[in-house]
Amino acid sequence: MSSYHPLSEAEAIEIARSIREVFPTGEELVSREIGDGNLNLVFHIAQPATGRSLIVKQALPYAKVVGESWPLSLDRARIESEALIKQGELAPGLAPRVYKADHELALTVMEDLSDHVIMRRGLIEGGHYPKFAGHISEFLARTLFFTSDLGMNQQDKKRLVQSYINPDLCKITEDLIFDHPYYDAETNNIEDSIRDAAEAIWRDEALLFEVAHLREKFLTRAQALLHGDLHTGSIFVTPESTKVIDPEFAYFGPMGFDVGAVIGNLLLNFAGQEHWSADDVSRRDRRSELLATIRDVWTLFEGKFRRLWDEHGVDRVARAAGYQDDYMLRLLRDTIGFAGAKTVRRVYGLAHVADLDTIPDAAARERAQRLALAIGTGLIRRNRQAESIEDVILIAEGAL
Ligand code: SR1
Ligand code: MG
């Protein structure tokens, strides 16, 4: 019989106490439930006497954001802990340390990153993260390359694909990113002021055609092990450090979905600058900085991925002349399309983002939302024709 039950704070403390490498001494531990995401319980366990701390994260058998009417498999906690460990091995220093995983209780005990800030919040507050593009490009290049057929034995990869079959979480993405935003779905959360823009998207046959292509790729292309939800709320940062958390949506899918998630979420903040910058000059500077980061993320990622391929590629056939260039162009195009889809869903789908939603002034919020939709739809329309990352910059600047 399963021992699963949602933990009380006292139980979370007992589990934390067993992690001797963090709490070698027996002083009092205190717990705070800090989960502000959509799906899980998160306990911050601290030892005031020593200043030591860790995180206990437990999956709930339903989506917290909706309630018990939306059941979700607890196996996602196993997937999350295994993905965290794998990402930590492939991209050392860029994922939190895992101290313990208990699949029965659907929990992971991991490093506390309270000295970092969630990147979405940091960007809203005007933070600068000059090392971010270098770090995230390293994370993306290494985790995607070494779990693809280019970077690992293809039979071993198929076995790995099996252990990351993640149907419930993939369905959330299939619905909330690639389906519901494109018709008048009940789950959508549309402010009246932009309803006309959503309705225009629902009537745009050329756009729906591109979304169908993107959805097909998400459904069918087991290219590499993805993080699967790599928005700026899944990244902790300081100016010196980047840590990628929350890979519960991990599965084998199209690489561009992860790269596009990073770019799309930087663009959501770009749109939010309608409010978050104090004046026109700082707005222009902040937006240039965000676009430079987007350019760097792609350019550094591409260079690192190509280097890994040249130095560690396992597939003789993939050395065919011109194949690498063609592969990288297709990956760029996927990235641009998925960045667009990730942007649109956050404006009026089920789950929004603080970059837009917490803008207090209704007129500024509407301008930011419309800007995000113009950029997102522009990227989706362009994706299969794009030639370089400069296409993204031109679409973002052109939407202003
Ligand atoms: C019901 S979960 C809504 C969203 O939160 C997660 O972070 C994913 O992005 C998901 O689509
Ligand atoms: Mg999450």
TrEMBL record:
NCBIfam families (UniProt xref): MTRK
Top EC class of this enzyme: transferase
Official protein name in the record: Methylthioribose kinase
Gene Ontology biological process terms, A to Z: L-methionine salvage from methylthioadenosine
UniProt organism field: Cohnella zeiphila
Function: Catalyzes the phosphorylation of methylthioribose into methylthioribose-1-phosphate.
InterPro entries, per database record: Aminoglycoside_PTrfase, Kinase-like_dom_sf, Methylthioribose_kinase
Reaction catalyzed: 5-(methylsulfanyl)-D-ribose + ATP = 5-(methylsulfanyl)-alpha-D-ribose 1-phosphate + ADP + H(+)
Binding site for substrate: 229, 345
Gene: mtnK
Keyword Amino-acid biosynthesis: yes
